[in-house]
C-alpha cells in the first residue's frame, strides 16, 4: 500500500485543493442493499438520475442504463422516487 | 494621534471602522451590544463599505463568518458569554479551517445563574478551541489589540482566528480618553487580505470542511497544534512592527515593577490596572511588590512567564473564572504548570475573584500582597486556592 502523507506534506485545514477528487474515493463498499432495475418496466423519465446523490445512475442517449456500483451507496432514493416502481433494493 | 472619549465597546467599533472588514456578521448580546450597534451605524451611514449581515443567532453569525472568510473576505464578528456558547460548534470549526477571523469578546459570566456582568468564564471555556486569545486592560488596549489582531490572524505563518477580550461593563461601558490612529495609517498597517485558497476562485476549485476520518484528521490537528506553537514565535515580530508604526510597546506579557520584586500578582485584563495602583502604594511603603499581566493567553507565553516569575519569593494568580476542577482557575493551573519546568519554583497560590461582576477593590488586592509577604517570611501556604470577595 502507498504510504499516506504526513502532517507536513498535506494542505492545511483539511482543504481539498483540487476538484473532482470524489472519483478517487469509491463509496460502493458502504452499500448494504443494491438497486436493481427492471428495465422493460422503466419509462426513462430519469427521475432516478436527477435524485441520485452520488451520480451513480448510468444514462446513455437519454436512456436509463443501470447503476455504477463503484459509487452507489445503496441509499434507495432512486427506488423511492421511481414513478413506476421498477427499481428494487436487493441484498448484496 | 487623536484623543477621543470612548467606551471599550466604542473603541472596538472604532477599530472595526478603520479596519473596514469586507463582511461583519453579528448578533447583539449584552455587554457586546454597543459594538454591533455602533458598527451597524457606521455601515448604515456609509462610513464603511462593509457588508453587514444581521443574523438570527450567534451560531449563524459564526457560520456566516466561516463562509465569508473562506471566500477570501476579511471577516469580523463580536460576542459575549452565552452568545459565544451558542456559536461553540463553529468556533472550533473556524480554528480548524484556519480562517483568520477577528472577534472582539466582551467578557461576561456564563449562565447560570443568569448574569450579565464580567467574568472570564466565557472565553476561558473556549481556551482549547484553537483561537488566539488576547486580553485587554482598558479601552485603549481594546482598540490597539483589535488592529494588531488582524495582522496576527492573517499572517501567512499563523492563519488562526483571534479573540480580543475586554472586561464586560468595567471596560466596555466606561468612558476613557483614547488616542486613536489616523485611518490611512491603520489601513496601511493591516494591508490587503489575500487568501491562498478561496471558495470563489472557480479556476482553482477547493473544498472546505470535507469529512476527515481516521486516516487524516489527526494530521490536521497536528498541524493546528503546530500553528499555535509557531504563532508564539511569529507574534513578537508582528508586535514589533506595530510598535514601530504606532510608537507603542506591546509585548506577549506586561511586567510591572517586576525586575526587583519579591512578591507578585499575575492577573489578566482590567484588574491589572487596579493592581498596578496597589503596587505603587506598596512600593512607597517599601514592599517589593510587582505585577505580571499576560496579554496573550493563547498561545500561552510559557517562557516569558517562567522568566518573569522564577526569581520571586511568592506569587498569587488572580483568576476571574473557576475551572471547577477543584484545583483553582485556569490561569493558575497553567502558570503553575509552566513553573514546574523552572529550576527555581516560587510558591504559587490562587485567588478566584470577581465572578458575575463582583467588584474587586484595592483593599482586596492589598490582602493578597499581605498574604504573599506572609508566605515570603514563613514559607508556609495556608490555602492553595482562595476565594476573594465572596461572603462566608
Ligand atoms: S441507491 Fe442511492 S446511490 Fe445508489 S443509485 Fe440509487 S440513489 Fe444512487
Ligand atoms: S425513475 Fe424509474 S422509470 Fe424513471 S428512469 Fe429511473 S428507473 Fe426508469
Question: Could you explain how this protein is built, in words?
Answer:
The complex is a heterodimer of chains A (92) and B (392). Chain A is of the alpha+beta class and 92 residues long. Chain A has helices spanning 47-51, 77-81, and strands at residues 33-37, 57-60, 63-67, 87-91. Chain A is elongated. The two termini of chain A are 27 Å apart. A six-stranded mixed beta sheet of chain B has the order 9-11-10-13-14-15, with helices on both faces. Chain B has a four-stranded mixed beta sheet with strand order 5-7-6-12. In chain B, helix 1 runs parallel beside helix 7 (139-154), helix 3 (58-70) runs parallel beside helix 5 and helix 10 packs across helix 13 (362-378). Chain B has 392 residues and is α/β, with parallel strands linked by helices. The longest helix of chain B is centred in the middle third of the chain and has 30 residues, at 217-246. In chain B, strand 10 (263-266), helix 10 and strand 11 (289-294) form a beta-alpha-beta unit. Chain B has helices spanning 8-19, 33-44, 58-70, 81-86, 88-96, 121-125, 139-154, 183-190, 217-246, 271-284, 302-309, 330-340, 362-378, and strands at 2-6, 23-26, 51-54, 75-76, 102-107, 132-135, 162-167, 176-180, 253-256, 263-266, 289-294, 296-298, 314-319, 348-353, 385-388. Chain B has two domains: 2-246, 3-Layer(aba) Sandwich (Rossmann fold); 253-388, Rossmann fold (3-Layer(aba) Sandwich). Classes of the chains: A alpha+beta (92), B alpha/beta (392). At the A-B interface, loops of A face helix 9 of B. The complex binds iron/sulfur cluster (SF4) (2 copies). Residues 37, 42-48, 64, 82, 84, 86-87 of chain A line the site of one iron/sulfur cluster.
Amino acid at each position: 500500500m502507498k504510504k499516506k502523507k504526513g502532517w507536513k506534506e498535506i494542505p492545511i485545514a483539511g482543504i481539498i485543493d483540487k476538484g473532482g477528487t470524489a472519483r478517487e474515493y469509491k463509496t460502493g463498499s458502504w452499500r448494504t442493499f443494491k438497486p436493481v432495475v427492471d428495465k422493460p418496466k422503466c419509462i426513462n423519465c430519469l427521475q432516478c438520475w436527477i435524485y441520485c446523490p452520488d451520480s451513480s445512475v448510468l444514462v446513455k442517449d437519454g436512456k436509463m442504463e443501470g447503476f455504477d456500483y463503484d459509487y452507489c451507496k445503496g441509499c434507495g432514493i432512486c427506488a423511492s422516487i421511481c414513478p413506476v416502481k421498477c427499481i428494487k433494493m436487493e441484498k448484496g | 494621534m487623536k484623543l477621543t472619549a470612548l467606551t471599550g465597546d466604542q473603541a472596538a467599533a472604532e477599530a472595526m471602522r478603520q479596519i473596514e472588514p469586507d463582511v461583519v456578521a453579528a448578533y447583539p448580546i449584552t455587554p457586546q451590544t454597543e459594538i454591533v450597534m455602533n458598527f451597524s451605524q457606521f455601515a448604515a451611514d456609509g462610513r464603511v463599505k462593509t457588508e453587514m449581515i444581521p443574523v438570527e443567532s450567534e451560531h449563524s453569525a459564526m457560520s456566516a463568518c466561516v463562509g465569508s472568510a473562506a471566500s477570501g473576505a476579511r471577516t469580523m464578528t463580536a460576542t459575549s458569554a452565552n452568545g459565544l456558547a451558542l456559536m461553540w460548534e463553529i468556533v472550533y470549526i473556524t480554528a480548524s479551517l484556519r480562517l483568520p477571523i477577528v472577534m472582539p469578546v466582551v467578557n461576561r459570566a456564563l449562565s447560570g445563574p443568569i448574569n450579565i456582568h464580567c467574568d472570564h468564564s466565557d472565553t476561558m471555556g473556549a481556551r482549547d478551541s484553537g483561537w488566539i486569545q488576547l486580553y485587554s486592560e482598558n479601552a485603549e488596549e481594546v482598540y490597539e489589540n483589535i488592529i494588531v489582531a488582524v495582522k496576527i490572524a492573517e499572517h501567512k505563518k499563523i492563519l488562526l482566528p483571534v479573540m480580543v477580550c475586554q472586561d464586560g461593563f468595567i471596560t466596555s461601558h466606561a468612558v476613557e480618553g483614547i488616542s486613536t490612529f489616523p485611518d490611512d495609517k491603520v489601513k496601511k498597517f493591516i494591508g490587503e487580505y489575500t487568501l491562498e485558497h478561496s471558495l470563489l476562485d472557480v479556476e482553482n476549485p477547493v473544498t472546505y470542511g470535507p469529512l476527515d476520518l481516521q486516516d487524516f484528521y489527526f494530521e490536521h490537528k497536528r498541524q493546528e497544534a503546530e500553528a499555535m506553537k509557531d504563532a508564539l514565535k511569529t507574534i513578537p515580530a508582528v508586535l514589533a512592527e506595530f510598535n514601530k508604526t504606532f510608537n507603542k510597546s506591546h509585548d506577549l506579557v506586561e511586567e510591572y515593577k517586576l525586575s526587583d520584586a519579591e512578591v507578585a500578582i499575575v492577573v489578566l485584563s482590567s484588574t491589572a490596572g487596579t493592581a498596578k495602583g496597589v503596587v505603587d502604594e506598596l512600593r512607597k511603603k517599601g514592599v517589593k511588590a510587582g505585577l505580571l499581566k499576560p496579554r496573550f493567553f493563547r498561545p500561552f507565553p510559557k517562557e516569558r512567564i517562567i522568566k518573569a516569575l522564577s526569581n520571586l519569593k511568592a506569587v498569587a494568580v488572580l483568576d476571574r473564572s473557576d475551572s471547577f476542577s477543584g484545583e483553582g482557575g485556569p490561569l493558575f493551573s497553567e502558570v503553575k504548570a509552566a513553573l514546574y519546568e523552572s529550576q527555581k519554583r516560587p510558591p504559587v497560590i490562587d485567588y478566584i475573584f470577581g465572578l458575575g461582576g463582583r467588584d474587586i477593590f484595592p483593599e482586596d488586592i492589598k490582602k493578597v500582597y499581605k498574604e504573599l509577604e506572609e508566605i515570603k517570611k514563613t514559607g508556609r501556604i495556608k490555602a492553595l486556592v482562595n476565594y476573594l470577595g465572596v461572603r462566608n
